[in-house]
Amino acid sequence: MGLKASSDTALYGYVPTEWVCIVFVVVFSLTTIVHLAQAMRYRLTWLALTIVPGGLLEILGWSGRLWNAINPRPLDGYLMQICCLILAPALIMASNYLILGLIINKLGIQYSRIAPKWYTVIFCSGDIISLIVQAIGGASAAIAVQDTSLPRKDPEKGAKIMVGGIIFQMFVMVLFTALGAEFLFRWATNRPFVRTISSEGSSDQVDESPGSALKQSPEKTASSEEAEVERWRLLLIGLAGSTLLIFIRSIYRTIELLDGWSGPIISNQQLFNCLDGMMIALALILVNFLHPGLLLRTRTNAVSLGMRKKKSSV
Questions:
Q1: Which of 29-33, 82-86, 113-117, 227-231 has the highest mean pLDDT?
Q2: How far apart, in Å, are the Cα atoms of 168 and each of 82, 175, 200, 301?
């Protein structure tokens, strides 16, 4: 038999509410199933390898909390939710890094400070590093909690390591947001970067002439162009919204863990439900509705804003 807590409230500072845990297990199960179906439908393997595993970890984490809602004392459920819920958002965020790279490839790499491939290399590498650090912290805390020998190990060390991983993840997210915002500004105002081409006539960017990725098909009508622009806007809203929700959750978890395993923040179930569970659930659902596959499946070569047409006619 696994280790058990000395009292019903010893693990969390409260007993998790059963119906809340059931709701989150159901919600995360449904949105993850939809994400898997969408990844298969639109043949987006990278989503099946990022956002879907993130959803599965959320299901496992909330199943651990449900386990403790039914039986508050088993330590296994508590450790399961610690490890799974701390790691899941990093995997979900990895999909956002890949989505922005695809957007840049479509709208024009000349408006990006770095090549799209570097979004994958830099930000996914940062995500992996944060995952490893958080996993080490979670494992350290789990070992300390399970240790029954004397002197007892301090789980606070593991918490601090996890905080380090979360803070690093937040730094990566801020850098990602800054580069993404700069790209969108340059794209919207048609201000491409001027780059130096190598002697062979090539660079790490495929084509950097202004508007090269935004060539207008002659058969496009104004209405079809407006519809396409609207799809891009929705995709960008989904990307920005899910990133913001995950960032809010990261701020909360940083403050929570810095406050300690027995602090008032980590012992507040309502805060956890709203600022962790709800934030991640909304992020996943938002991408369900504003899914990149809805746009990427269309075989269009470009998107052109009305402002570009006005500029070209001047």
A1: 29-33
A2: 18, 11, 39, 37
Query: What range defines the domain where residue 135 resides?
Result: 18-191+222-304
* Residue 18, pLDDT score: 97
Residue at 29 is within a domain? yes
User: Does residue 209 form part of some domain?
Assistant: no
CATH number of the structural domain spanning residue 54 = 1.20.1070
What is the total count of domains within the chain?
1
Give domain status of residue 276, yes or no.
yes
State the virtual CA torsion across 278, 284, 289, 295 in degrees, nearest 10: 150
Separation CA 111–CA 180 (nearest Å): 10
Q: Alpha-carbon distance 183 to 188, whole Å?
A: 8
The answer to whether residue 7 sits within a structural domain is no
Prediction pTM value = 0.82
266 contacts 187 by C-beta, under 8 angstroms: no
Half-sphere exposure of 52 (CA within 13 A, CB side): 14
